């Protein structure tokens, strides 16, 4: 089955570029940029990837990204991920980036976006992987800060296609960002939103009704609300599920407790993604493998999941034809 998964053409729709930083690259960049990481070695850093909830992960995720500073660093980080994606037969990826975690360190928006975009172009021409970029607001910060970030990003608007919402979910509902997402839509960007990872099903409804999100990132807690499940199934709203992430952040105790099979059986448009791969112990194929083993998924199930990933992508039918 692992070979079958490996050869399936896939799209990855839930991936934070900051969360692709492997400890080896972190140490190389720390040395180059003369920054001290709070770990003595790569092994010690990897051993710290032991989380009790979303916040315990985010604390390390934000601290580690301090080593990524120049346009070249953003390029190298992005290209490393895209090479790995290509090796797993990922044909298309829609990548999140968190500009506020960089502008807060006085790194200009252009440094971030131009570095990432240079790698996306290179991967398209040299690896045949297509990509789109999605800017993500940090929801633990204010709506005013998100609005300012949007304004800073507008000069680079041709380099990203959508906007999402990530970071600490509990206590920061989508409704906090209604005004900024109204402006996001007025500017013509696609809208996605992390919701129902740690937060309640109500946050998913808010993302749909108040932000007009077209895709829900995670969304696993929808299963607690039968009316919401019915709605998500009827409207075929894509859910970008990240199984290894959910287990490593204790959303589910073990992979056998994950509700992804129930979600598939309920007719939801489920996709499988890696979120922050080195932190959670696997890229996209390892996520497919983990659920295949836990639930005995058939080849047909796996093909359906891979097909869903293209259905849910922000690509035209013509672009999809070329990829598969
Ligand atoms: N949830 C919220 N914020 C994040 C995540 C996530 O899974 N990964 C990186 N930032
Ligand atoms: Zn995420």
The residue fraction in helices comes out at: 40-55%
* Backbone CA Rg: 18 Å
Q: What order do the strands of the largest sheet run in, or round the barrel if closed?
A: 1-2-3-4-5-6-7-8
Which word captures the global form? globular
**Low confidence ranges:** none
Number of domains: 1
Bound compounds: hypoxanthine, zinc ion
**% residues in beta strands:** 5-15%
CATH superfamily: Metal-dependent hydrolases
- Describe the largest sheet: 8 strands, parallel
Oligomer: single chain
Q: Please state the structural category.
A: alpha/beta
Number-wise, the strands total: 8
Count, helices: 17
CATH topology: TIM Barrel
Mean pLDDT: 98
Task: Give the termini separation.
Answer: 20 Å
CATH class: Alpha Beta
Question: Can you write the helix and strand succession as a string?
Answer: HEHHHHEHHEHEHEHEHEHHEHHHH
CATH architecture: Alpha-Beta Barrel
Question: What this model shows, in words?
Answer:
- This protein is an alpha/beta fold and 324 residues long.
- The chain has one domain: Metal-dependent hydrolases (TIM Barrel, Alpha-Beta Barrel), CATH 3.20.20.
- It has 17 helices and eight strands.
- It has helices spanning 2-7, 23-32, 42-47, 54-64, 71-87, 100-103, 109-127, 143-153, 178-186, 201-209, 226-234, 243-248, 260-265, 277-280, 284-295, 299-311, 317-323; strands at 10-16, 90-97, 130-138, 162-166, 190-195, 215-218, 238-241, 269-272.
- An eight-stranded parallel beta sheet has the order 1-2-3-4-5-6-7-8.
- α5 packs parallel to α7 (109-127) and α8 runs parallel beside α9.
- The chain is globular, with a radius of gyration of 18 Å.
- The two termini are 20 Å apart.
- The structure holds hypoxanthine and zinc ion.
- Residues 14, 16, 166, 194, 217, 275 line the site of zinc ion.
